[in-house]
Fold:
Amino acid sequence: MSLLGLIHLNHLRRHPWQTGLAGLGIAMGVAVVVAVQIAQHSAQTAFYNAQKSLSGEVTHRIKAAQGTLPESFFATLMIRNSDLKATPIIEISVKAVGNDQRWLQLIGIDPFSTLLPMRRIDAGSDRLSAILGVSRVALTSEAVLSRLGATTTGVVEFDYKKRHFKLTLNPSISGQTRAQGFPDDLLVSDIATVQDVTGLLGEISYIDLSVPSSIAGKALLSKIRAELPVGVELRDIRQERAFRQALSRAFDTNLTALSLLALMVGMFLVYNTENFFIAQRRPLFVRLHTLGVTRHELFRGILLEAGCLGAISSAFGILSGMGLASALLALIARTVNNFYYPLPEAATNFDPALLLILWLAGTLATLLAALPAAHAATDVVSQEKPASSMPLKRSALRAGLQSGSAAAAAGSLLWWPSDSLWKDFVVLSLGLVSGACWLPLGLDRLGRWLVSDVLRHGPRPEALGIQSLIFRTSRASDAVVALCLAAAVSLGMILMTECFRSAVDTWLGRLLVADAYLSIPDEVPTEAGGSLLAEIQTNLRKLPEISALSSVTHRQVQANGEPTGLSAFDLPPRARTGFRFLAGDPTEIWSRWDSESIVIASEPYAHHHQLKLGSSVILTTPEGQITFKLAGIYQDYASEQGTLAMNVATFRHYWQTEGISGLGVYLAPQTEITDLRRILKAQPHSDIPLSMRSRAEIQQFSMQIFDQTFAITRILGAMAMGVSLAGIVGALLAQQLERAREYSVLRALGIDRWQLCRIVLVQSMLIGLVAACGAIPMGIGCATFLIRIVNLHAFGWTLPVEIRYATLLEIWCAVLIAAGIAAVYPAWHVLKTPPARALRYE
Amino acid sequence: MNRRQWLWLLGACVSVGALPCWRRFFSSRSGINPMGFLRTTDPTDGYAHAGTDQRFEFPKDHGPHNHFQHEWWYFTGNLRDQVGRPFGFQLTFFRFALSPEKINSSSAWATQDAMLGHFAVSDIEGGHFHAYQRTGRPVLGIAGMSADPARVWIRDWQARFQPQRTAGWQLEACHHNTQLHLDAVSHKAIVLQGQNGFSRKGPGNDNASYYYSMPRLQVAGNLVLEGKPFPVSGQAWMDHEWGTTTLSADTVGWDWFGLQLSDGCELTIYLLRREDGSYTPFSAGTWTNSEGISIPLCATDFMLSVTGHWRSSSTHVRYPAGWTLTVTSLGVSLSILPRLAGQEWHSPIRYWEGAVAITGTRAGNQLDGIGYVELTGY
Structure:
């Protein structure tokens, strides 16, 4: 390595704290990006692998919109399409008699099929031969066997719709756990056995297909689609899988954006530190230039220094990120599970290519951040004062022009016709830059006012410090901008979260009007639970203790060719008050609800599908594809993908099912919740666990989930704030270095060390004050943008903008406190530096 | 360490590292050995067993025999298109019983049997072996077997006996852009293998099957190979065999030859092989002359020598690929060579089945011929 390179690297080595601080910034930024990317990649990989293992080669599924398919349809399909890979499946829920009445999923397959569900059941193996024919044998896992207490004989009695039968359980399904995304309640048997023991003769649940993505495959699908009877649909499993994964796309984008924010803050630290190093080594650079080192060589040397710092810090960042990824994955998995789709337990998946790319990105980011400093080094040797030592540019015109340009760019981009979240983030960034352009001017004006008006009669050292800050250097403006931006973004996110929370809380308070809500736990199959609730509904209607009942039936349907949630409501007048319509007249909507076959859509659904009043929605029903008119759009925060809703009478006209998913109970006056519990205990099938919750309990639980979900954004926001504090420290230290002789002269003139400390503190507090005052309006603007634009594009929700003044005050105080804390180390540095050394250093 | 020591160490590492490859090269086998299906250790009570008192009735016996544990209908042949481009084909339907008795169930999926189909085309000039498999259970018309008229099918693969013709079969198979449609007409009487169709394969009373052949079928029809049509004609061979626990425990495989000679004679030879490569005394064959008169051959009547080998790059199995066959009593001396080396089925069932070319003499007269050879248990 050349002597020049050694000089640069030795400087890093001799200033471990500053080097460490800059390195820490990059390492933390890279760690956050790495953790987010690894966690997202791991979650997606786990979901994808579980779905692939669960579905094997299956690409499509033929299923009736309601009920079963005739097995003769399968035979015709196979005979007419000789090259088709297809297999029939019967899938039902059965109850184990005794043994806590556990519900299990019994699947009947054709072991001779070349297309088997679940990759782990190998064709031609001894395991499959055990279930061949009407063997009354079912494959299952050791876990199920042991849960059922059937480890000795393996014979278990089951109940299917009051039909009892016995199966011999063979523990041959191994290595599949719920954590991996597999159902842990599975029994697999021959289709003949299942039909024989359950009496489902002539019927199958669905047909799984494997069709290649080729021209011939597409032609085959078209042919099959044309031959489907009414009420039978052909679904693309891969498309549904991709659709499910895309549900969390907005969430993933937001997470990535926050992680990039952390990286940018790290880059700022590098920029700050390199500037400080330049200031420190100005005399050295001048001497080197005198000895023949060119400006180009100096430029390269600075970049080499930054490159080494970046490479090593990024490597540490990668390692730290890998450690953080596990914790972040747990948080992400919880959110995805709560809001989007069941996610199997994922192990962190470290993709070497991804890690390499992120390492390179961290190193490049460091080089980018060091470019201004490298350029400044060339200014040094040209005997020009570095820009950071120049007085602040005081021109309001200049600030206005810069701000206006950024605002104009933001405005132009905002009107660009695109719902891309990345476009929104760029607009937001430009908006913040536009606001930040005023900060140096603000620092200058406030400083002058303090010096001239406030401190005129007060102690002089502080005034000297302020003057020094504003008259002699613009380095402080970098620190102000960094702290202000970090505080503004944090404030914006906090305000947005608070508005969101408030909106959800209000919505729940309005929607939940029943005294209690009944539902069936997830482990009970839908069909059995739905029938039970329907029976309870019928019984409760006759009781004087119950004044009214509402019900909802949830179903996944195909709407305009896409899987969609449909809710069929039975709503008494009291329950209807809970709906707030954003489009359509409520009176007219409810009138049509009772008399016509219409649908209403939740706000996110209408937004994502660009629906408005009167739009047509085509639903695949057992009677074929039926067109419904959209009569209203209602506010709903239950899901970001949105749902459709219709009257239960309309629903039952097409789907002919009596089962329901949830009941709302309105108690008569003088009736208590305890009375309701007593009534429910007396209902039939009380062995099936029923979930009963009051509206207060539901509201509390929902807000708990909400708070858990936004824990991630709070953590990342706090990290951004914390890292920006280091910027202030760096700015103050650089300030001291440049003013070292000045401070020494002041000391010689009689100012003591403590007064110098006060100067440092006042400088820091001035930076903090300007940043805090700037962060308030910028934070409010950021929050408004996030609520009105980003939230709408990402999730389709409109939220009211409500500013809590207490939050504004909290952030304002937090910034000032942070600025005060940031002054501690520079003040200590001043305390311990003897004035004589400072003079000699100069 | 000096250079020589380094080289020695490097060589040792390479050798040790290559050891797994050698092991794989010599010892690994992929695919299922079909012998397992014919030598099951499961109790076979309830199944019928081959005996010497069988009376064959045709065309009824062209159909299935469900009381026996296994059965197959084997069609192989050599074809040429209009310009003489040679092809080989195989269409086989296997039946394996799941239960000796009819299943007592109301489900239409309940079946006593499972079916397996193999369809292969040997493109001799192009050097490619196209092999396809289907499985199915004979329910709901998707697959099945019928006796009157005899028909066996799995979806659109079928072999159908056409009683209006003289011992004629219609063969059809289709897999994507490979299709075969052939009409096969027999110009010779059915050959009952072994002792009037009772073919003993081992010392036990149960080690036997019923076995007949139609050794000379004239075929004509269409072959579509990778989308390109070829009108074809040629000669085919049909075997139909059924039994229960046919093979003895010491039999690991067999070599079967179905040879059609240019003088109008046919020769069936099957050699039952032990683990050490020797043949059991129950190896046998049948010579059919041009008038259709058959002479059974026992193991001592013929001698087979292997003249070459071929190793599969897929399964690493080493098959014989070239034979000399001598039937001294008939003055027959034949040299048999595969027309295409890689005619191997390797997944999930492993065996070699392919078209062969024959040259030789009989009673001093030069002759040639075509045929098919099947090698199992390697």
